[in-house]
Protein 1
Amino acid sequence: MKRVDLHVPIYDWTVTIITIYNQGCKEAVQKVLKDFNLPQQEKILNDVSKENYNGGVTFTKKAQRKAVIIIFPWTEERYFVRTMNHEKRHLVDEILKWHSVEDGEAAAYLDGFISEEIYNRLNELK
């Protein structure tokens, strides 16, 4: 498992991105999820145990302005990129929804900012 924590200053959100590689990551993922106290924790851990591939999940705790993105193992790099972008879109939508922002340009700027942050830390995730 690899983990990076990002900060989105304009909205003051903390984003944790986790990439997992096999079911051996279950305990490490469980420790991260415990901090989020997610009701879906068992389902996520079950997905980790099953070694789901080419997918991911995003969860937010809006009141605390925190999010976690989990990227499951990928069979090809293009699936990693596709999944990361998919989950990033959920993150952008949730942040803007929480702050009552309904502006396409704001969404594009936020998406660009988060994309650049992920790009800068990509070696830590793969």
Protein 2
Amino acid sequence: MNRTPLRRISARRLQETSLYQYRWKQFLLAHPYCQVWLAEHGVDEATAVHNLGFIRLDGPSGPAIVVPLSTEIHHQNKRRGADLLDQRFWMAVSRDGHEQIEANKAWARAQGYLLDF
């Protein structure tokens, strides 16, 4: 008797994953700078984009700081089921920003970077 092996991932989830990969690339293009860094330093995302990532935190005479680029997507409400594709709960973050969220969950919840559902 021939047996067909069970799929590890459903065909529907494979399709969602493919769509997810496309959308997160588009999301990172639309949000090129780490949203955690911007929020922690009180910098508006539009300002960072306008200045090509160079920010002067100490006024016009202060040194220019380069805002970290976003390289990952952080899911504020985890990435289960339909939430995988829900961009309302996505954040574009750098690796350091993502590690900061994961290492300090209480702080991340207080800042709104992690949500409890």
Protein 3
Amino acid sequence: MILFRSLTIGLLGACVLLLVKLLARSPVPVRPPVPASAAIQGLEGVPTIIDVSPAIRAADLPALVPLANGEHVLAVGDRSVFSDLSAGAEIARSGLTSGQYLDLTVGNGVITRRVLVLMH
């Protein structure tokens, strides 16, 4: 009987110590998300690749393209666009399906870069 009580108290003490160690861990620091403009700086000439699920509608594609302050879509594929509205309409009109891609030229007048939107 004394042996059983000793084992029970020992196991209970081990469980309490384990819980104290688990709860005493310092929390993992959470990094704030990097703004799109900060992520794009210094990426001159480096293409951005966006991998898109087929569940995304074509009308939602323009919202997925990260643009820095002052940047605009200059061309969709081989067609030049002259406003943000026509760029969004052209991207939505592209009708991407599974296995296709969309090539965008993005720039701010000084620096241009490429954005490739891949549809699974």
